[in-house]
Amino acid sequence: MRLVARKAAEFDEVHGIAFLDEHLSCAYLARMKHEDISASRRRPVNVSLDTGIVDAARKAGINLSRVTEAALRVAVKKAEEQRWREENRESIARFNAWYAENGDPLAHLPAL
């Protein structure tokens, strides 16, 4: 299996995105990879958390701010990915239909 196909399959499996071929997954990966949320200044905010988990986290020496920030990054990224899939659903369906009908236009090229 080509490297691109393996990476696309791994991504699809982890994120639950089913593309007909690795090229569209690759395009998606390339676009989303560069949209990281950059770290910037910190802002104090109020959040309500279960007291039991807060106590356990403190006992374990876990930095609540950092863990919360990391979880928010994951949640925001997932929401952005879902939005991208929704916005591009028709294009993905058209591409998949074209690909199913015409096959891989690069199939004649040797794998890297």
Question: What do you see in this structure?
Answer:
InterPro entries: Post-segregation_anti-tox_CcdA. This is Post-segregation antitoxin CcdA. The chain has helices spanning 3-15, 22-33, 51-59, 64-87, 89-102. With 112 residues, it is an all-alpha fold. It has one domain (3-38, 45-102).
Would you kindly provide a brief summary of this structure?
Keywords: Toxin-antitoxin system. Pfam families: CcdA. By secondary structure, the chain is mainly α.
By DSSP (H or I, 4+ residues per run), the number of helices equals 5
Overall tally of domains: 1
Residue share in helix: 55-70%
Termini separation comes to 10 Å
Which structural class should the secondary elements be placed in? mainly alpha
Order of helices and strands: HHHHH
Radius of gyration based on Cα positions:
20 Å
Strand content: under 5%
Average pLDDT score: 80
Characterize the largest beta sheet: strand count, sense, and whether it forms a barrel: none
**Rough outline:** elongated
Number of strands: 0
Poorly predicted sequence stretches spanning 5 or more consecutive residues = none
Q: Which helices and strands, and how do they pair?
A:
Elements (H helix, E strand, L loop, with lengths): L2 H13 L6 H12 L17 H9 L4 H24 L1 H14 L10
Q: What tags apply to this protein structure?
A:
112 residues; mainly alpha; 0% strand; Post-segregation_anti-tox_CcdA
